[in-house]
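Researcher: Sequence of Nucleolar protein 14 follows. Predict its structure.
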Amino acid sequence: MGKALKRNNLADKVRKTKAATEIKNNPFEVKINRKKFDVLGRKTKHDVGLPGVSRSKAINKRKETLLKEYKQKNKSNKFIDRRLGEYDAKMAPEDKILQRFTIERQRVHEKRDVYNLNEEEELTHYGQSLAEMEKFNDTVGSDDESEEKGLLSAELTASHFGGGGGLLRKKISGEDQRDEQDSQKTKSRQELIEELIQKSKQEKRERQVQKEEAQELTEKLDQEWKSVQSLMVKKTPKAEVADKPEDKPKPEEYDMIVRELGFEMKAQPSEKMKTPEELAREEKEKLQKLEADRLRRMMGDEGGDNVQSQVHMSADDLNDGFVLDNHDKKTLSYQDGKWNIAEETEDDKEEQEESGEEEGSEAEEADEEEDEEEEEEEDQEEGSSEDEEGHSDLESEQESENEDKHEDEASSSNQQKSLSREELKAQQEAAKAELPYTFTAPESYKDLKDLLNGHTPDNQRLIVARTQKCNHPSLAAGNKLKLQKLVGFLMEYMGELAARSPPELSTIDKLIPELYSLCQMFPEAACQSMQSILRDAAYSMDEVIEVKGHAAFPTVDMLVYLKVAALLFPTSDFRHPVTTPALLYISQTLTKCPVRSLQDLSSGLVLCCLAVEYVSFSKRFLPELINFLSGTLQLAVQDKASTGFMVVPPFKRSGKHSDLLVLSNSQSCRSWSKKNLPLSATQQLELKRDLDRDHY
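Model: Prediction complete. Tokens:
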């Protein structure tokens, strides 16, 4: 066998590469492995170790293996980067970008040029090539100038821009050049310029003549064309046109849908959503307005502030608010041969006293205003005296007619007042009997009882609802605490209603919706009050069991509390601070309370119904419920040994109450009919005959 190759470890490589001076200077980099004894012929490899290097190597190895596994734990999806060259370490970043760009351009070119047959693309604008337009060959001329107006002749250019002398001369060969030289010697510069001007005017005149001639020819051709056109067009008679039906093109389906959409009703803008604070504020203002209206009707004020006395106003009245006349004159009318003068009521006297106090403060201002008005009236009277003389007869007739109308209206109003006195009294009584619209939150349980006593169940519900609206937490700072107290007061009041004989269950039924709304608003307060009720009931049962060994079934008020808890709080939760203790209380009652009468049996069956309601959603199993129902069936069997069923406490196989449900007469079932038992049957029963007992 050949000798095994020696593998160099990473620590050995690092140890060899490091200088001896560095190791000596930092002794913490080196760990010396000491031997207890030397062995001859054994070569040592790891006399000196490098813990820092080995530790960094182990950490990197964990990052590459364990860390990646930990990050991918409980993850089924993976993000794979499929970009070109992403995992190729040999490619430079510039090469990656260049190849990606090339592939992208090829993909776009393939899509765009599928149906393009031209080898080269040519960019155009309105049908003209952009390459040709960029040469700027076209000269931009003015629209006002004609085609020939922009052209400058050589003579005009030479005269204006030549600078004189030899530039004004034309290059003419032969004799013409000599003649022109002779004529130019005699002509001055001014004469030459005048000749040029005359030539330009003559050319302009000729162009105008040519334009007019062309226009006349065009009009002449148009007239001749009209005469020729009538011969070319063949007119069909009207009879033939009427016989041939017009073939109108049928509208397309898309056009019909577009027209129908135009006639559809558009969505109307709706009002913005209001916050709970705004809704509560509006409810309170509405109730305050209704309460003010009720108080006004109770005091006998028919019109209130909205109804104003009808005062005759002329057409010249400016209605500027500075009228100082009080229209409180009493009108005289006759009824049944006697004077009918309206009597002053106490309210009118109080209003007069208040108005007298206000008039004292306003008297000084009124005097100053009267002085200013008198000065203005004197100036106006001087100017209008002449106009008044001409129309005095007409004004006198109008005044007489107006006075007659006022007298008729006054007499009719007095008759209406006299006829409406009985209606006013009836209205006052109805307003007094009406329920107020605003209530203050009760500070104690006694205040709540005083507020609700003497009212029907519907009115009690209205009182609680209006109290809640008038004392919403968003309206004032202390309203939240008041409504939290109201939750406890309502629960205590419901217990008192249930404890009465007979229990007022209809009132409780009306109050439960208001209690539910308060519970939704303040769940912690409702939870604490219900928890205190259940805690007190459980403690009292435990105390009675410790003393007597058994306890009685709960009363009607406790049964009502258990029912209310199921209505206010969720029963399907695995663990709830209210419903879980309530369910434990029901189970403890069914286990610890023995059945000694028909009332106890009725209470136990009510608790069974409540237990079924508690577990209807969660589908839980209650052994106490099954035990109580089986024990109830045992009470109806006379021979309990034949059943082969073991009785579990609180039921007994034999005893005083073991045959509680055994019929005294087997024939009583023939006259039995099903009836609904009231909840008060759990407390009081009046069964005088055995037949009534068997029927029960």
